[in-house]
Every structure is written in structure tokens, then in C-alpha cells.
């Protein structure tokens, strides 16, 4: 299994609440645009649905489309993930959606993890472990 450790740069983050509850909890939807900071990942976009508790911690689900060149092969793939924010660190786990990889990356499988704090901003660390087709 190959491994890529990278950081994506957050270019824009548009998060809007769509349901706010009397106890202070809320549901939001985020659209995020990222750029690559190395030769492997060119760009990425993701959408997230978040649930925030009154204390500011949250749980979320995401879909992220990544444009990349891995081992000399160019294409795109989609990660489906879930995560949590504990007030300090956002942690997420995701997997490559079967059948989502395109171009020379068609057939790619794998999983990714991310853990970031305010100190990482404007970057989002990402570790991808993958098997090329």
C-alpha cells in the first residue's frame, strides 16, 4: 500500500446554518475549496454537513473530490468521510468511494485520515493510504 502525507491549503470556506435549535445546537452545510501544496494533489473541493452541539463541538459527514497525480498517474477520486471536532482538533476518516476514480487513477482504492487544529490554518493535513489499480 502506498502512502501520501500532504497538506491542502484552504482557499475558501463557506459554511451556512440551515437549522438552528432552541438549545443552541445547529446544523450547517459547508462548501470548501482547497489547493494542493505539493506535486501530488492539484486541487480539492468538499461539501460537509455538520451538527454543532451547544458547547461548540461537532460531528460531520463529508464528500471530497481530489485532483491528483499519484505515482505518475493523473486523475480524480472522491473520498466519503465522517469526523468530529472536540473544540480543539478536527479529526476525520474517509475512504475512496468505489468506482469514483477517473483517468489514470481509475480503480484506485484506499482510505484517508486528517487531524487539524487552528495552528494548522490555512492548511489541512491529509494522509492517504492507497492501492493503485
UniProtKB/TrEMBL annotation:
A Pfam family of this chain: DUF3224
SUPFAM superfamilies recorded: SO1590-like
Database matches in Gene3D superfamilies: SO1590-like
Official protein name in the record: DUF3224 domain-containing protein
Amino acid at each position: 500500500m502506498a502512502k501520501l502525507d500532504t497538506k491542502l491549503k484552504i482557499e475558501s470556506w463557506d459554511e451556512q446554518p440551515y437549522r438552528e435549535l432552541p438549545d443552541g445546537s445547529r446544523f450547517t452545510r459547508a462548501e470548501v475549496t482547497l489547493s494542493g501544496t505539493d506535486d501530488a494533489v492539484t486541487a480539492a473541493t468538499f461539501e460537509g454537513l455538520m451538527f454543532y452541539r451547544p458547547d461548540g463541538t461537532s460531528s460531520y459527514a463529508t464528500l471530497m473530490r481530489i485532483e491528483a497525480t499519484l505515482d505518475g498517474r493523473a486523475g480524480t477520486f472522491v473520498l466519503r468521510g465522517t469526523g468530529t471536532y472536540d473544540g480543539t482538533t478536527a479529526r476525520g476518516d474517509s475512504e475512496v468511494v468505489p468506482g469514483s476514480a477517473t483517468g489514470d487513477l481509475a480503480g484506485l482504492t484506499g482510505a484517508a485520515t486528517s487531524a487539524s487544529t487552528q495552528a494548522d490554518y490555512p492548511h489541512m493535513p491529509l494522509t492517504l493510504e492507497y492501492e493503485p489499480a
